[in-house]
Amino acid sequence: MSAIVDTLRSIQKRDPAARSLMEIALLYPGVRAMAFHRLGHLLWRYDQHLLGRWVSEIGRFLSGIEIHPAAQIGKRLFIDHGHGVVIGETAAIGDDVTLYHGVTLGGLSPHDGIGGKRHPTLKDRVVIGAGAQILGPVTVQSCARIGANAVVTRDVPQGATMIGNPAQIAAPRKRDGEDAFAPYGVTRKDLPDPTAKVIESLMAEIEALRVRLIEVEGAGDTVQPPPASRETDSTSDSADVR
Question: Of 19-23, 72-76, 108-112, 220-224, which gets the smallest average pLDDT?
């Protein structure tokens, strides 16, 4: 019972719209999905695979969240809004992780996995924004943030903020804010697009080259004219003879 209350309180801290623990327990789809997952996972561990999948399907019908009963999920997972979330069979989720609606923890085909591992691993206190896709047996290290609609196919360093498709590091997490919660995985400081930064640097380089070209052309205007050609010299000599 204490674990349930602890989970509800952790959700209340991460969701300013939550007015009471009772509201969270009765009305939040993520809480319903996790209740069915705990039962389905228990059945799966005891080799009751069909019953585990059946319980999982009931949970999906009632919450809009699909969690494979074999997925390993830690403490105090918060699935906010929830609709469209998919968590695959070999996914592993640490403690105090937050997922928003439309998140997919998807897998590769069996022969592409590592030792049967096809789905992502999320370490503690990871935040995944709405619509983000984490694909393959990648590892998202603790305190990392994945922005909305990002597509992650490679490992994510600890504390990093990833945005874009394919996802790139927008900003490393500062040490003093390492444990700070960021709704939807980003703050306003994280929003600049890495692609835009690359374009800006290219434009700056082009401008520097333009200035250099102007300087070279200006230097060329001060160069002495070349000596007269041999034909001109011959003409002058003939005139002198006459």
Answer: 220-224
Stretch 209-238: mean pLDDT: 66
Task: Please name the amino acid found at residue 130.
Answer: A
Average pLDDT over residues 27-44: 95
What angle, 0 to 180 degrees and rounded to 10, lies between the N-to-C axes of helices 29-45 and 49-63?
180
Which pLDDT band holds residue 215 (cuts at 50, 70, 90)? confident
Q: Which residues of 205-216 are buried (b: 16+ CB within 10 A; e: fewer)?
A: eeeeeeeeeeee
pTM of the model: 0.72
Scored b (16 or more CB within 10 A) or e, 14-53 reads ebeebeeeeebbeebbbbbbbbbbebbbebbeeeeeebbb
Can you tell me the distance from the alpha carbon of 238 to that of 231, in angstroms, rounded to the nearest whole number? 11
Angstrom distance (rounded) from CA 71 to CA 87:
7
Cα–Cα separations (whole angstroms), residue 205 to 45, 65, 196, 197, 198: 59, 48, 14, 12, 11
* DSSP 3-state of 96: coil
Q: What average pLDDT score do residues 222-239 get?
A: 55
Say how far apart CA 154 and CA 169 lie, in whole Å.
11
